[in-house]
Design a protein that fits this description.
2 domains, about 40% helix, alpha/beta, 15 strands
Length: about 400
């Protein structure tokens, strides 16, 4: 704790100035946002990329945004742990930081959302807003929804609605093996696939449904052997980071001839493994892909030039577009006023107009199914300098991907 504060701390005077300035918005005011995600451990490469992505996007929006404010990200390493997330969240709040963002791990997301909600109930005048940019457990905007939590990614149910809308039209999908990380997100991927495919393609067989420890498996060969033995023609996985990279490598080594349907094949490290070759096609459901026209092409090229790395977390753009638009509407950076402005707000994201649904604070946006393919003159981007990228095979409109909510939101 002491080390974290010393490394990432701000002075008491600066914190006081920040808090006192929250009553009104003015051009040039700096809004600090705590970034809470793994910067060490098995998922450090993902966390480091996404920290750079937020900082890069802050530079982009600091040049021009509707509120005229400046954004600054203050990094905290939660080591991927829900318990550590609470420790560093407290450190951030002690420093007077009133906005936090986190995405890697629904366990950590649930802990942060609950802690922020309780903090705000007990500390009027010191409220904190939580931007969730990647944790996709549907419970976070259903049974565990919070007024102070805003999700920028599509949740598991939305992505599965889109993915199965595509898979139902693929005649080669007959036998599916599910393999997922053993925590909230992995359980939800398994559950929602089984529910949605039964409704759309009842003939599809589930030939395996495995859960494995998150971030702990070093060799996926035994799991791949089970997939082969089951005769699966398709693999559905919500794995991300090291757990997907190593799964792909094991599939290649074993000569597995199956198509992969993924949520996170574009995340750091996995594209390099994909470029080495996999038996079948690899497809991904996401809210963006490498070949979206307009701002995505511009920003991913700028990011590559600056970091020799890939900008794949489009939520970093939408997060600051949402915040700055709400701050402009509220004429304030006070989290209470900004949260009220964000709830139900329609704004311009990188995909066009999107909406932060008022009922549950789940962003409503279109989704895409894309496929890992060799770069072409029409689709030239090179992910991880492999000469390959993700190319769209189907666009799913927001109204198709949208799913209902059971959220009974308690508003202040």
């Amino acid at each position: 704790m002491t080390f974290t504060r010393r490394l990432f701390g701000v002075s008491v005077a600066a914190s006081a100035a920040l808090v006192s300035g929250l009553a009104f918005a003015q051009a040039g005011q700096t809004v600090k946002i705590a970034f809470i995600d793994p910067l060490s451990g098995p998922f450090a490469n993902v966390g480091q990329n996404q920290l750079k992505s937020w900082q890069f996007m802050a530079e982009h929006f600091n040049k021009k945004n509707p509120a005229g404010v400046k954004f600054e990200f203050v990094p905290f390493d939660n080591k991927g742990s829900p318990q550590e997330s609470l420790t560093v969240l407290r450190a951030a709040m002690d420093q007077g930081i009133r906005y936090v963002t986190q995405g890697n791990g629904s366990g950590a997301a649930g802990a942060i959302s609950d802690a922020v909600t309780k903090h705000n109930e007990r500390n009027p005048g010191k409220e904190v807003v939580y931007l969730n940019y990647a944790a996709v457990d549907p419970d976070l905007t259903n049974s565990k929804c919070s007024y102070w939590h805003f999700r920028l990614d599509a949740d598991t149910s939305m992505k599965m609605e889109a993915l199965t809308s595509y898979m139902k039209d693929q005649p080669d999908v007959k036998k599916v093996f599910l393999i997922n990380q053993n925590y909230a997100h992995g359980h939800q991927v398994s559950r929602y696939f089984k529910e949605t495919i039964a409704r759309k393609r009842p003939d599809v067989q589930i030939v395996g449904d495995d859960l494995h420890p998150i971030g702990q498996v070093k060799d996926f060969a035994p799991y791949v052997a089970k997939i082969k033995a089951a005769g699966a023609d398709s693999v559905v996985t919500g794995n991300w980071g090291q757990d997907l990279t190593l799964l792909i490598k094991a599939a290649k080594d074993a000569g597995l001839n199956a198509n992969f349907y993924t949520y996170y094949a574009g995340v750091s490290g996995t594209p390099t493994a994909l470029a080495a070759g996999v038996g079948g096609n690899v497809r991904m459901v996401a809210y963006n892909h490498n070949n979206l026209p307009g701002v995505v092409k511009q920003l991913q090229d700028e990011f590559k030039k600056k970091f020799n790395d890939d900008w794949y977390t489009g939520a970093t753009y939408n997060g600051l577009a949402l915040l700055s638009s709400a701050m402009a509407a509220a004429k304030s950076t006070d989290p209470v006023k900004v949260a009220a402005a964000m709830s139900g707000l329609k704004f311009q994201g990188f995909q066009g107009e999107v909406e932060m649904r008022r009922a549950d604070h789940q962003l409503q946006q279109g989704l895409y199914i894309s496929e890992w393919r060799k770069a072409t003159p029409q689709a030239p981007y090179s992910v991880e300098n492999t000469g390959f990228n993700f190319q769209e095979v189907r666009a799913i409109p927001a109204y198709v991907a949208s799913t209902p909510t059971s959220c009974q939101m308690k508003r202040p």
